[in-house]
Design a protein that fits this description.
Shape: globular
CATH architecture of the domain at 352-550: 2-Layer Sandwich
Oligomer: single chain
CATH topology of the domain at 352-550: Nucleotidyltransferase, domain 5
Number of helices: 20
Radius of gyration: 28 Å
Strand order of the largest sheet: 22-17-16-15-18-19-21-20-25
Strand content: 15-25%
Helix content: 25-40%
Length: about 550
């Protein structure tokens, strides 16, 4: 047990002198001690009332003690829903205000920021006498800016860039990190430049692997909650697919707690991965860091041990999981919101192992006759050129060029006969290029297409479904119809690999369909390859090419 954890359980021992004091004086001494050790925990336990009027209670939430006492400069929390992290953040913000430090609280949008203030902050102020006394008169109804205990607190949406200008603060809190505008978030640490005690707190539900809160947690010390099996003494983390369910078919699972039934009068129990006996998921445990050298304090909080609201939490999770197995939208939500882990379905992206499976044993020669090309347009032009040989796209050039003149030279060198170039954002320059080069087309992505693509001869354009085309080009990799050079990991200084693996195929709940999500990471090579695939498709690359629709 750490010293920090102990401070939340009992006050310091009294000296002989203090033992003679009356009880009221002793309580005041203990209160002052807690406030020095962890202002957040002191405020939460001593005064704070939630928006429902309830108090902070650590009963059945042993995991929360160290988190509430953590005063690290930077904290990352990868979490599931309904784990009390919002109350932790509110107490962090207000305890900092009591000590003279301002806060900048960021949510995905201004609308969500307004809802958070009205539904959570204002309700806590109404129900907590200390907060009512500490708020500046006239600020009670203010939504985006409040002054508490003499310190300024600003609430802002990440989508509005101007929110990140001018306001100087000491504490940055980013809520629902994955849903925020990642580019604007890069400006948030600048708000701490003049602070004597800067703090950063980032937290939220993960979405896909390697992005947002999942990536931030990976860069932290990666603390996971370990509990001890009282039967065999094994320390372990709780895993849904190890401690609760076992797979019995391609898409069917059964509970490991064989004695549980819906009418048994108890909740589903965790099963020890070592001895197979029942394991109390709410028992005392300890946080263990997998990357202890990191200066960032990171926590992974899951409903498997953090949700103690009722006796049937695991039963509800089992029901939700059964419904989600055959529903991609619900399965993704189960991973992200209930387990607090990033979701990635098998075969949902081009992985490094898939790329390795396409590696040949040669190098890319120059000046190959009759190739196809794909170009993604950005600050630089990302270019892919392949020879169509024996039903495969054999890569002959993968890299970047600085302008369209260099692109012209590379294409002439490889005698490109068919090419597809990104129509956006340089539509004018792209049109000039395709007009000057026979066999080239500009590509527009469409959301949903009835056919595979639509060609317009007059405009020299092709319109194709973004998701559908990325699905098809992905299959050429997984099916071994692409040949990479032996040194594929070194292509474009390694950017080829990082950008090819960036997009993940996930289910978009709002659109009710699958989409490829790059999670804010560069993916230029992935699209250049996709445009090259489209060019190959127009040359009859696939065994059974689909006839285009001309307009």
């Amino acid at each position: 047990m750490t010293k920090v954890t102990q401070t939340l359980r009992r006050p310091p021992k009294l000296s002989k002198t203090s033992a003679k004091r009356n009880l009221i004086e002793y309580i005041r001494d203990a209160d002052s001690y807690y406030r020095r050790v962890s202002p957040r925990a002191w405020l939460g336990v001593r005064y704070h009332r939630t928006h429902r009027g309830t108090r902070i209670d650590f009963a059945g939430r042993e995991w929360a003690r160290r988190l509430w006492a953590d005063e690290s400069r930077e904290i990352v929390i990868k979490k599931s829903s309904q784990c009390g992290i919002s109350e932790w953040a509110i107490c962090e913000m207000l305890s900092r205000a009591m000590n003279g430090f301002g806060s900048f609280y960021v949510l995905p949008t201004d609308h969500l920021a307004g809802m958070f203030v009205n539904n959570r902050i204002n309700q806590s102020i109404v129900r907590t006498r200390l907060y009512r006394q500490g708020i500046l008169r006239g600020d009670a109804k203010s939504v985006f800016l409040k002054h508490m205990f003499g310190s300024a607190i600003k609430f802002a949406g990440s989508k509005t860039r101007t929110n990140f200008h001018e306001f100087v603060t000491d504490t940055v809190l980013v809520d629902e990190l994955d849903l925020c505008d990642q580019e604007n978030l890069n400006l948030a640490p600048d708000r701490l430049g003049a602070s004597k005690d800067p703090r950063i707190r980032r937290f939220g539900n993960p979405t896909i692997r390697g992005f947002g809160i999942d990536e931030a947690y990976f860069q932290s010390d990666q603390k996971a909650w370990h509990i001890k099996c009282e039967s065999c003494g094994e320390f372990q983390t709780l895993d849904w697919f190890v401690n609760f369910v076992g797979q019995v078919g391609s898409s069917s699972y059964e509970l490991l707690d064989l004695d549980w039934t819906p009418g048994s009068g108890r909740d589903i129990q965790a099963i020890c991965r070592n001895c197979g006996r029942a394991l109390d998921r709410l028992t005392k445990g300890e946080w263990v860091a997998a990357n202890p050298t990191s200066s960032v304090s990171g926590y992974h909080v899951s409903k498997l041990f953090a949700d103690s609201r009722s006796h049937d939490v695991m039963s509800a999770l089992w029901g939700a999981f059964q419904e989600s197995v055959s529903n991609p939208s619900k399965l993704q939500r189960f991973y992200n919101n209930d387990l607090g882990v990033a979701f990635e379905a098998p075969g949902a992206k081009i992985s490094e192992s898939v790329l390795a499976g396409c590696a040949g044993d040669g190098v890319m020669p120059s000046g190959v006759v009759s190739c196809v090309a794909g170009v993604d347009v950005g600050a630089r032009l990302h270019v892919h050129i392949s020879e169509l040989k024996e039903g495969r796209r054999v890569k002959r050039f993968v890299g970047t060029v600085g302008n369209f003149s260099e692109l012209d030279f590379i294409c002439r060198q490889h005698r490109v006969r068919k090419g597809v170039i990104d129509a956006m954002p340089e539509t004018h320059k792209a049109r000039e290029f395709v007009t000057a080069h026979h066999g080239w087309l500009m590509c527009f992505y469409g959301e949903v297409m009835k056919g595979d693509y639509t060609l317009n001869r007059e405009d020299r354009t092709i319109t194709i479904g973004r998701t559908e085309s990325l699905d098809a080009s992905f299959e050429t990799y997984s099916g071994g119809r692409v040949v990479l050079p032996r040194a594929w990991r070194q292509l474009d200084g390694g950017d080829f690999v990082s950008q090819m693996v960036a997009p993940t195929r996930i289910y978009d709940d709002k659109r009710q369909r699958y989409v490829w999500n790059e999670a804010g990471r560069p993916d230029h090579h992935r699209h250049a390859d996709n445009y090259e695939y489209i060019a190959a498709l127009l040359c009859g690359f696939m065994a059974e090419p689909v006839e285009p629709t001309w307009v």
